[in-house]
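Study both lines:
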Amino acid sequence: MRGAIQIATLRGIPIRVHYSFLLVLPFMAWLFGLAMAGGIGAERLRGHPLVWGTGLAVALFLSVLVHELAHSVYALRKGGQVSDITLLMIGGVSRITRMPEGARHEALMALAGPATSLVLGVLLRVGSVPLAAAGAEELAFATAFLGRLNVFLGLFNLLPAFPMDGGRVVRALLTGWLGRVRATQAAALLGKGFALLFGLVGLFGLPGLWPGGNPFLLLIAVFVFMGAAGESREVLLQTLLSGLRVRELMTPRTSAVGAEDSLEEVDTRLRAERRRALPVVEEGRVVGLVTQEAVLRVPAPRRGQTRAREVALPVPELTPETQAWDALREMGQRQLPQLPVVQDGLLVGTLTQEDLVRGIQRRELEGNQRNGPWGVGPRESHT
């Protein structure tokens, strides 16, 4: 994900923090500091409220990390694959690149996160009792407050709508009846409905219960709507590319540049061949990809002295038998316009974004002729 930096690795899973998390952290620290001062009493609170608030904000995001790890660990144990976990300004995202087989495991994986948050919330609430008895008033309040936040996190994620975990449970329950695409669309529609509700409450409030003009609730509404739309789009693309191999879509080009070629030469080739990127080869093997953007970042006077290997991006090597969906996912995660295709150590072609778009369009046309606008039968299942 763009704008995220890796801070750790747990169970082989990269843990990343998005810059939006750093933006919201001071606001959360201020908000939680006010809660501490109000709950304890500003005159009795030992330590600055902002210090307590910062500690609570960090602890909350650690709780979110535990929540996401529960999803990821379950997925790994059931044969899934996890790309990374990213902490955002309003929560976290586990990018599970291969789901566990079967709707049951998908539902249990989705429930693992909220269940972990609820258990953690109860444990923190219980743990605050002996702290209060020992006279650690501030620590007891902070522990109980964090417990309530975890309970809210668990319950909120059980809402039956994408992108919340409850929406994934709904999809798993509907998949056997509707097929994965239509089940996803149904859960996404619920998600958009909840987003609209959150937006209306955020703007106008609920008389006697919730004041209007709540920017945080409006932010959640936007996040939920975009997440629901994105999930629906991703599953549709995955279905359209299902069964397609790279060999069916790739462009059989063997055009490449040498690792010692200057960026002037690379730029000339890119322009002449109207390409956005070219594979970089050294001693016959692909060692990376040089993009038009990488060339243009180097000042023109220096391009004659800069070699292609110095700006080449490391890339995974696709084979002709690689699944097209896996290739699209790799391309999207790495933000690359194309990837090299290699067989027996030799470059046999390239797969570009345009190649994938053509494949998707072809599947859509074929699907329209067979089954209507979504290209899948009413009971098709991909679990």
